[in-house]
Design brief:
Elements (H helix, E strand, L loop, with lengths): L2 H7 L13 H27 L2 H6 L6 H20 L3
């Protein structure tokens, strides 16, 4: 079966409608921006752990166990929000 035979089966579809459009690039760009924002969101938590002012405000400065717990709680909450979306 050739491609021409498939096009003849759909008489209301013109051959121009089967060509790729610019819309696919828009969708790709939106997906790329969304993934970049999600990556930056996860990266910000790692940057906050290195900030002495942030650690002092939470009273966990110099306590690696509390810093680890903070990272663990964030990652578990992030995982649940990714898995169980509304």
């Amino acid at each position: 079966m050739s491609i021409d035979a498939d096009i003849e089966i759909l008489p209301n579809v013109s051959t121009g409608a089967l060509r790729p459009t610019r819309y696919r690039w828009v969708i790709s760009a939106v997906l790329l921006i969304t993934v970049a924002i999600a990556y930056m969101d996860r990266l910000n938590v790692a940057v906050l752990i290195a900030d002495p002012q942030f650690l002092a405000a939470l009273h966990i400065n110099g306590d690696p166990v509390k810093m680890g717990m903070l990272m663990s709680v964030f990652l578990v909450a992030y995982g649940f929000s990714s898995k169980f979306r509304v």
